[in-house]
Amino acid sequence: MNAPTDLAHLLPNVEQREVPEAFLAALQARFGQQCSTALAVREQHGRDESAFVSVPPPAAVVFAQSTRDVADAVALCAQHKVPVIPFGVGSSLEGHLLAVQGGISIDVSRMSQVLSINAEDLTVTVQPGVTRKAVNEAVKSEGLFFPIDPGADASIGGMTATRASGTNAVRYGTMRENVLALEVVNARGEVIRTGTRAKKSSAGYDLTRLMVGSEGTLGVITEVTLKLYPLPEAISAAVCSFPTIEAAVRTVIQVIQLGVPIARCELIDANTVRMVNAHSKLGLREEHMLLMEFHGSPASVKEQAETVQEIASEFGGNAFEWAVTPEERTRLWTARHNAYFAAIQTKPGCRAVSTDTCVPISRLADCLLDSVAEADASGLPYFLVGHVGDGNFHFGYLIDPDNAEERRVAEELNVKLVTRALKLEGTCTGEHGVGLHKMGFLLDEAGAGAVDMMRTLKRALDPDNILNPGKIFDTPAALRATP
Ligand SMILES: Cc1cc2nc3c(=O)[nH]c(=O)nc-3n(C[C@H](O)[C@H](O)[C@H](O)COP(=O)(O)OP(=O)(O)OC[C@H]3O[C@@H](n4cnc5c(N)ncnc54)[C@H](O)[C@@H]3O)c2cc1C
C-alpha cells in the first residue's frame, strides 16, 4: 500500500474551483456582518479534528441565523456554481469540512433554538446548531433525555449529517433510529420537508434516511425532529478491570448474546486508562477496563448488573466499582468522552489518525485482538477506546502531522484493520462517516455498483456538484483495503 504523506496523496488531480468576485460581492451585500472573509475565521472553518494537512480555506464564511439565510446563501452558490460546505461545530474526524474544491462555508451554529418540545409524544424539534448537551438541558425538566452522545458536544445538524452515535447506541440506536423528520435546503436553495412527527410512515421514498449520513452532500439541514426517552427510573454505572483485552471482549460478546439490555458498554485499554487518569485526575485502576451503565427499574438494573458481574467473573474480571451518585457518573462519562483529548495531550503537537471499524458482535475478538498486536508492534503511541457493545472501536494513532513515516505507519495499520473488518463482514466506519479519508474503503465495502448508485443520486439532486463536493465517493481514492 502507498500510504499518503499528506493530503495531496488522497486527492490527486483535484482542483479548486473559481469563486467569482461578483459572487462574493453579492454574498456580502446580502449578509453584511454575517459574512466573514477574515483569514482566521476561514481557516477555522476549513479544517476538522482529523490529522489532515489543510487545503486552502473556504473563500468566505456565512453565519446563518435562519432557514431563509441558508436558502439565500445556497441559492447564490447555485447561481454562480460555487461549492458550499455546511459547518456545525467542526468536530468531525475524516476531513469532512475541508474545502477541497474551494467555495464557501455556511456555519449554522447561530441557528441554536429549541423550537418545540412535545413531551407527550417524546419528540423535540430543534435548529441544526443546537448541540447534544443543549438538547438535554432543554428537555431534562420534562423528565426526558436524548441519548446520542458523540465525545464532542457536536451539533444536531452535524450529527444528523454524519449519522453519529456514541456510548448509548447499544441500547438506544444511532441518529438513523432517532431522527423523525427534517427541514432541508436543497441544492437549488429551496426548502423541503422530510418525514413527520408520527412514529412511523410508509409515505414514499424515505428521504429522511437518505439525508441522515449524507455529510452535507445532498442538502443543508435547517431543522431536525428527534425522538426523546423518559429518564430511567434507576441508573447505575460500574467499571470492571480485566487481566487481558481478550477477557474484556469475551465478556462483552456474551453480555450482548444473552440479550442483557445494557445501556452503555465501553472498552478502554490500560494505556488509555493511564492517559484518562492523568487528564481527568481520576484514580481508575490502570488495567484494561469495561465502563458500563444499566438503565431501568431498580429491580431490572439490579438483575442486569448481577448477570454482567457473573459473566465478567467467569473471564477473570475484578470486582465491580460502582459510580453511584449522578456526580460520580457524570465524572466517569466525562472522562471517557475526554479520552481523545487526554491522549492528544500526551504527545505535544500530535494529531490522531482515528479508526472506526465496526463488526458483528461475534467477530469482535477476531477483529480487535490482531489489530492490538499490530499496533503494539508498530511502535506508534496510540489510544484504544470502543463502543464494544456495538462491535465498534477506535484506535487513535498519535502522529506528528509533519512526519511522513509516522503517517505512513498509521495509515498502514488503518488499512490492515479495515481489511480485517471487511473480511469479517463489518464496516470501515461505524459512526464517523466517510469524508475524504474513507472514500477508497467505501468502494471496497459497498462495491462499485452501490457507489455508482450513490453517485447517480447525488448527480440527480445536485447536478452542478456544489454541496460539499469531493467527499464520500467523488475523488479518486488512495487508501484501499487489500483483497
Ligand atoms: C473527541 C471526539 C469524540 C468523538 N466521538 C464520537 C462518537 O463517539 N461518535 C460519533 O459518531 N462521532 C464522534 N466524533 C465525531 C464527531 O463529533 C461527529 O462526527 C459529529 O457528528 C460531528 O458533528 P459537528 O457538529 O461537529 O459537525 P461538523 O464537523 O461541523 O460537520 C460534519 C459533517 O456534517 C456536515 N454538516 C454539518 N452541519 C450540517 C447541516 N446543518 N446540514 C448538512 N450537513 C451538515 C458537514 O458538512 C460535514 O460534512 C468525535 C469527535 C471528537 C473530536
Written overview of the protein:
The structure is a single chain. The chain is of the alpha+beta class and 483 residues long. It folds into 4 domains: 5-107, Uridine Diphospho-n-acetylenolpyruvylglucosamine Reductase, domain 2; 114-230, 2-Layer Sandwich (Uridine Diphospho-n-acetylenolpyruvylglucosamine Reductase, domain 3), CATH 3.30.465.10; 234-343, Alpha-Beta Plaits (2-Layer Sandwich); 346-479, Alpha-Beta Plaits. It is 37% helix and 18% strand. It is built from 18 helices and 18 strands. Helix 10 (245-257) packs across helix 12. The longest helix has 20 residues, at 404-423. The chain is globular, with a radius of gyration of 22 Å. The chain starts with 6 loop residues before the first helix and ends in a 22-residue tail after the last helix. Mean pLDDT is 94; it is low at 1-5. The protein binds flavin-adenine dinucleotide. The site of flavin-adenine dinucleotide has 36 residues, from strand 3, helix 6 and strand 10.
The distinct bound ligands, ions and cofactors come out as:
flavin-adenine dinucleotide
> What is the averaged pLDDT score?
94
Strand order of the largest sheet: 15-12-14-13-17-18-16
- Number of domain units: 4
| Cα radius of gyration in angstroms | 22 Å
Dominant shape: globular
Low-confidence stretches: 1-5
Rounded to the nearest angstrom, the distance between the terminal CA atoms is 12 Å
